[in-house]
Design brief:
alpha/beta, 6-stranded mixed β-sheet
């Protein structure tokens, strides 16, 4: 092994039932460097981190820490070896003091009892010397901001770790000033020789803070690059898996026009820490796409429109009526349907039948006291099973027994049964077979031709170009531009994502 590396993973492979999460992946971290790990959903970033930190057992490969072969079996063992992780969601106890959170399980003791004076002094010294933070360590963690809580988590990790710190999406809940402070801390730790693995979807942050970048895609290593020798456009190409000039055909067929009156529009709608002010208009019979990398704000925008999340500022107008406070029940009443990105967690109810899953939204729309008769339920369920070609021996089959593609069709059927005016589709073709993908894409265009509005989110850019009338491009939670007509191509979308066209000081075009 090359002695210049603090941490080196060789030929790491890991498979789960039906999924090869990692395939012969190499990863190297030098002492005193910040190394970014990049990739879209399913790339293998989380699995690699879990293998390095002992949470997940590898199937194949070797891990070396400072030239010594290691095989951590638990997170605690990895910490003892000198590898600590701080996750996106701060995993600390808000009811305890800052000092207690830093030293929990490792409290200094005197005559068998906790030495509170020493613990407070150590916590204060650690925060000031390592992170340049001066706070009252006796105060409960809950009395401080998310950014400070993040710093406390890092302080704990630094105190435990002798050399390797993994930061998994640490900036997702921070504002620009808090990110700047975090980066100061990271640079300080780097100068002291610590190796830092930085996982983020924010391109600008990665290029600002990283020395090197490793890109994973579909469980495979795409490459390792010096940050100052890699352009944003090349990074996006490597993450998405498309060359710059590839698949640049624009959509040749436009949906029928139903006039210019909008069904839904927003004016600087935002949720702090989720999506910055966004302006969008969706017309009747239009397929509007939201394009961007993972973490760009696509799903967050969809949840804001459907009322799953509440906005902090801005205006939402549906059918010329301003909505003061949106929620899912009101969204359904107003004619919105929402097929979520994670169908297994947010979509299907596994223990219910296909019929029951299809009827959920319609029953909600009618109200709990207006029960839909079983005879009508069967007629409705059968109609959409046939329309969407859902492969099942019976509508009374439990949905968890269906394939991913057929589960996705059931979720679509659920919302089509409500006769929505606007259907929000978040990654409706992810993880399903080619045949089901083609059927769903065809259905999208047919629904739009009949006058239904569609908000379409997909990581597959060819799919966006093929299905959408317009595409709004998001990056790092900002709306950065719009493409339509002859300008709407895969290469133009990629270029806009990479270069951030349209972003200005205020953060919106």
């Amino acid at each position: 092994m090359n002695s210049e590396y603090m941490l080196k993973a060789e030929n790491i492979s890991k498979a789960f039932p039906g999924v090869k999460a990692l395939s012969d992946v190499d990863f190297c971290l030098r002492k005193g460097e910040i190394h970014s790990l990049m990739g879209e959903n399913g790339a293998g970033k989380s699995t690699l981190i879990k293998v390095l930190t002992g949470i997940c057992e590898k199937d194949q490969g070797q891990i070396f820490l400072e030239n010594q072969l290691i095989n951590p079996g638990t997170a605690e063992e990895a910490q003892r070896l000198g590898i600590s992780t701080v996750y996106q969601e701060v995993n600390l106890c808000e009811n305890l003091s800052v000092a207690e959170n830093i030293f929990i399980g490792r409290e200094p003791k005197k005559k068998g009892k906790i030495d509170w004076k020493e613990m407070y002094q150590k916590a204060d010294q650690l925060l000031k010397e390592s992170l340049n933070i001066d706070i009252d360590v006796k105060q409960t963690l809950s009395s401080y901001s998310t950014a400070i809580q993040q710093m406390v988590a890092i302080a704990r990790a630094v105190d435990i770790s002798s050399g390797v710190l993994i930061l998994d999406e640490p900036t997702s809940s921070l504002d620009n000033n808090e990110v700047k402070k975090l980066f100061e801390v990271m640079r300080n730790l780097k100068s002291k020789g610590m190796g830092i693995i930085f996982v983020s979807h924010f391109l600008d942050q990665v290029f600002e803070i990283s020395d090197r970048i490793t890109v994973l895609r579909n469980g495979q290593l795409i490459g390792e690059y010096q940050t100052n020798q890699l352009s944003r456009t090349d990074l996006v190409s490597k993450m998405i898996g498309k060359e710059w000039g590839e698949s640049s055909n624009t959509r040749k067929k436009n949906a029928p026009k139903f006039g210019e009156r909008s069904f839904l529009r927003t004016n600087r709608l935002e949720k702090k820490g989720s999506i910055n002010p966004i302006d969008l208009t969706i017309k009747k019979g239009e397929v509007l796409g939201l394009a961007g990398l993972l973490g760009s704000g696509r799903t967050e925008t969809a949840k804001l429109l459907f009322g799953i999340d509440s906005s902090d500022e801005g205006v939402l107008v549906i059918d010329n009526n301003e909505i003061k406070s949106m929620n899912p029940r009101l969204a359904i009443e107003k004619g919105l349907g929402f097929c979520p990105e994670d169908r297994k967690v947010e979509g299907i109810v596994g223990e219910l039948t296909i019929r029951e899953n299809i009827m959920l939204a319609l029953q909600t729309k009618k109200g709990m006291f207006n029960y839909i008769p079983m005879k009508d339920q069967r007629v409705i369920a059968q109609k959409y099973i046939e329309l969407l070609n859902i492969k099942t021996p019976s509508m009374e089959q439990r949905i968890e027994n269906l394939s991913g593609g057929n589960q996705q069709k059931v979720i679509l059927a659920r919302w089509l049964a409500t006769n929505p005016k606007l259907l929000i589709l978040d990654e409706p073709t992810r993880g399903i077979d080619v045949g089901s993908k083609a059927e769903i894409r065809k259905l999208i265009l047919e629904l739009a031709a009949e006058g239904m509005s569609i908000l379409f989110i997909s990581a597959e850019l060819e799919e966006m170009v093929a299905c959408c009338d317009r595409v709004i491009v998001l990056r790092d939670r900002y709306q950065i531009g719009q493409l339509e007509g002859e300008q709407m191509s895969v290469s133009n979308i990629m270029e806009m994502i990479a270069e951030g066209a349209g972003v200005v000081e205020a953060g919106i075009k």
